[in-house]
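Folding Problem: From Residues to Backbone Shape
Fields: amino acid sequence; protein C-alpha coordinates
RECORD BEGINS BELOW THIS LINE
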Amino acid sequence: MEPSIINNFIEKIIGAQQGHIHRFYEIFSARGFSLELDKTTNTVRLSDDSHAEDGGFLEALEDINYK
Protein backbone atom coordinates (compact mmCIF):
# COMPACT_ATOMS: atom_id res chain seq x y z
CA MET A 1 0.00 0.00 0.00
CA GLU A 2 1.35 3.43 -0.91
CA PRO A 3 2.29 5.73 2.00
CA SER A 4 0.33 8.60 0.42
CA ILE A 5 -2.87 6.54 0.58
CA ILE A 6 -2.26 5.80 4.26
CA ASN A 7 -1.47 9.44 5.02
CA ASN A 8 -4.59 10.63 3.21
CA PHE A 9 -6.70 8.13 5.14
CA ILE A 10 -5.28 9.23 8.49
CA GLU A 11 -5.67 12.92 7.68
CA LYS A 12 -9.27 12.40 6.59
CA ILE A 13 -10.12 10.63 9.86
CA ILE A 14 -8.41 12.85 12.41
CA GLY A 15 -7.18 15.94 10.59
CA ALA A 16 -3.67 17.02 9.69
CA GLN A 17 -3.17 19.41 12.58
CA GLN A 18 -2.44 16.77 15.21
CA GLY A 19 0.95 15.28 15.93
CA HIS A 20 2.04 11.66 15.66
CA ILE A 21 1.15 10.73 19.25
CA HIS A 22 -2.34 12.20 18.94
CA ARG A 23 -2.88 10.39 15.65
CA PHE A 24 -1.79 7.10 17.23
CA TYR A 25 -4.16 7.67 20.14
CA GLU A 26 -7.14 8.54 17.92
CA ILE A 27 -6.65 5.67 15.50
CA PHE A 28 -6.08 2.93 18.08
CA SER A 29 -8.84 4.24 20.34
CA ALA A 30 -11.17 4.04 17.34
CA ARG A 31 -10.05 0.44 16.81
CA GLY A 32 -11.24 -0.44 20.33
CA PHE A 33 -8.10 -0.12 22.42
CA SER A 34 -8.71 1.39 25.84
CA LEU A 35 -5.97 4.04 25.96
CA GLU A 36 -5.03 7.02 28.08
CA LEU A 37 -3.26 10.07 26.66
CA ASP A 38 -1.13 12.08 29.08
CA LYS A 39 -1.09 15.48 27.38
CA THR A 40 1.61 16.89 29.67
CA THR A 41 4.17 14.25 28.65
CA ASN A 42 2.60 13.16 25.31
CA THR A 43 2.57 9.57 26.50
CA VAL A 44 0.00 7.00 25.41
CA ARG A 45 -0.57 3.99 27.63
CA LEU A 46 -3.16 1.30 28.07
CA SER A 47 -5.92 1.97 30.57
CA ASP A 48 -6.23 -0.24 33.62
CA ASP A 49 -9.37 -1.84 32.17
CA SER A 50 -7.64 -2.93 28.94
CA HIS A 51 -7.54 -6.49 27.73
CA ALA A 52 -4.35 -8.30 28.78
CA GLU A 53 -3.39 -9.16 25.19
CA ASP A 54 -3.59 -5.53 24.02
CA GLY A 55 -0.23 -4.74 25.60
CA GLY A 56 1.48 -7.57 23.73
CA PHE A 57 -0.04 -6.43 20.45
CA LEU A 58 1.07 -2.82 20.90
CA GLU A 59 4.57 -3.95 21.90
CA ALA A 60 4.77 -6.04 18.74
CA LEU A 61 3.88 -2.96 16.69
CA GLU A 62 7.06 -1.27 17.93
CA ASP A 63 9.10 -3.85 16.03
CA ILE A 64 7.19 -3.45 12.74
CA ASN A 65 8.38 -0.96 10.16
CA TYR A 66 5.01 0.48 9.16
CA LYS A 67 6.12 3.95 8.11
